[in-house]
Structure formats: C-alpha cells, structure tokens
Amino acid sequence: MKEEIVYKEHVVLRILGFNTHDIFTAHKTIYDYFHYLDELTDEAILHSAITILNDCYLERSSLFFTAEEIAVSCLYLAIQGILTLYTHFRLLLTLLLLYKDIIM
Fold first, then answer.
1. What's the CA gap between 103 and 97, in Å, rounded?
2. Better-scored residue on pLDDT, 33 or 88
3. Which of 35, 64, 65, 76 reaches 20 to 30 Å from 95, CA-CA?
C-alpha cells in the first residue's frame, strides 16, 4: 500500500515536470559524510545531527543555504556535543548569513 502511494506520487511529480532524481538533500549529505568519517564517529553523532537537521527546517533562514552547508553545520554541532541547539543553531545561521554577505 505504501509503495503504491509513493509510486503514484512520483508519477504525478513526473507529469508536472519535477525532477525527482537529481535532488540533493541535507539528510543524504549527512549520511554520506557520516559514512566517510565512519572510523571517527559513532551512531550517537549521526542521530544528533539528524535531530538538529530536523529542527533546523523549522527556521526560515535554512532556505538561504545549500543542503551541503546545512548538513555540515549540523554535523559540526553534533560533533561538538552542543545541547542547547536552538540558540547555537540560530547563531550559526546568522554567522553563515554574514559569511555569505561578506563573500558576495
């Protein structure tokens, strides 16, 4: 049943002209980086990074960054063991916005 719904959603998206194959999400990027750093990290960091990532999508400012920038930021916060996610993540997003303004 679930597979049928997913298949029909993909059919509708294809008919509407959406590209469903070349999408880079922050979740996939986190998993890719996590597997690259496999010897240095443990599962707790992965779970923390995914939790931070899920929380970051609640902020509008996450629309200004690429999936890779968001994923790397979430992994960095998870590795640092920051528990007060909301204030530190907002600070990190603000710093990234300032960084983008300086470069551009």
1. 10
2. 33
3. 35
